[in-house]
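ASSEMBLY PREDICTION REQUEST
Request ID: AP-0331
Submitted by: J.K., bench scientist
Number of chains: two
Total residues: 438
Priority: normal
Notes: Please return the full assembly, not individual chains.
Input sequences:
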Amino acid sequence: MINLIFFTILGLALFGSFIFIALQGSPKSLPDSSAVQAVTEIINLEGSSFANARRLLDDTDYQALCSNPDLRRLALRLRNDRRQLALTWISSLQNDLIRLWRFRRFLIQRGVSSSMSEELRTLQALLLSLVLLSFIRLSIRAAGPFALPRATRQAGQLVDSMSAGAALVLGRTPAAGWAEIERSWVKSAA
Amino acid sequence: MFASEVICVTAIVLEVCMLLLLLRRGLWRTYTFLFVYAIWLLIGNSAIFATFLYFPTVYPSLYWNIDSIDVVLRFVVIWEVFHQTFPKRSGLNKSLSKGLGIIALSLLIFACGTFLIYQNYTGPRSIHLALDRSFGFVQALMILGTLVTARYYGVRCGRNIRGIALAFGAWVSISTATNAMADLSSSFISYWYYLRPLSFVVMIAVWIWALWVYEPNPPIMESEAIDLNRWTQDWNRTISTARTIIRP
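STATUS: Completed
Returned structure:
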């Protein structure tokens, strides 16, 4: 009896697992690392190449200055400077996103294969990322650069994921043609 | 009775379609084991159907004997899925084949054990049901294990193998559960008579869908030996540094 109950339960559990895997769909393909490299070489990504976001959003200096009443004014200046820098960085990230999206459109226009669902997903990701970056910009304007440090630091990842999407499309073309794509892209961007 | 005949004929028609698909597109060269299994299914099910129509007295014994042979031949499908997912010359096959072989052997011993310790056989049907569910359960685990291992290592499965593996796995697992339920409660037998062949028909239909477009597994991209050596050296250096930190 226990044997039968065991097989009934486990059989159903296994069936559920197969249905779950089937519904999940096949795992997303990762772009070739050389394609990712090529995308960053073809497109000049100013925002995502900025490596000191952690330092920019770290409020240790500001707190240290604030602790001394004589240095409050200096602290305020530092805060304003950091705010300006953070805002510039966020707008660079927004420009990067739009540039990557344009590059992707450029590749598909040149005949690289893509599906309607993939295009819609990309568009959705772009819009959500832009909305999120606008929200971060707003929060920096309203509450300063140190208010949402974690969310702001992770903003760079939005560009990285968009970049991976563009690399995935670029990876569908032979590597030998990438130099020609770069030339055409520079020409069209000029 | 009419419904059983319809299901049986549908299964045979679908099997013929699958064989034609494999032959027409030359897929049988790529999926040879599956092709052999498909031939077996067509022969076995045609024999069952012919006996059902013309020799009803021998039908039950023939049905169960063919089903028992089928239990063994199903391993051919598992082998097809495994060797397509982890090709023989791939590094993953070299690394995993020994461990997975031991697991497969342990599962087979488990299947034999669960079949032999089940003593309450009420008749020949129960013996076959026990055989079917013991091995069906193990086969479902093997297929699931292959798919999970592939996903873990980021090996992508094409539409063909993915469809074959998922449909086969779902069918053997539902077959295991329904077989156990049929033995657990005799009132379930009447449902079992329809549920099992119906799920089989669904599996064949999914196989046809999976094979409709030739989409094999993408080749596994392997790094150059120089890169691998460098990574091994880096990894060994990291381990020795970590050991030094832990035990200075």
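REVIEWER COMMENTS: Chain B has one domain: 2-219.
SIGN-OFF: pending second reviewer
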